[in-house]
Amino acid sequence: MIDRAHAESLLYRVAVASMTYSPDKAEQQPGYSIEEDVGWCLVAVSSIPLRYRESMRPTIREVIEDSTGCRTQFTRNVMALVSSS
Fold it and tell me: Which of 9, 12, 25, 82 falls between 20 and 30 A from 61, CA-CA?
């Protein structure tokens, strides 16, 4: 479980990464890797165990690459992790 602030921070970071991503970004910005963006997003939930963060990595990458296809389900999944206390 994570608190709401961390969940919202994760969603914010994924949204920013998604809005600034383009398929040719690596060509336009030598040295860029989408994994840098994914890692930056995961900083928001650094308080949860590594295995859970790592399990989010593929989904975050998908949302960054194609936010229209999976953002609603991703948002639901993240908010389901929010502790009720």
Answer: 82
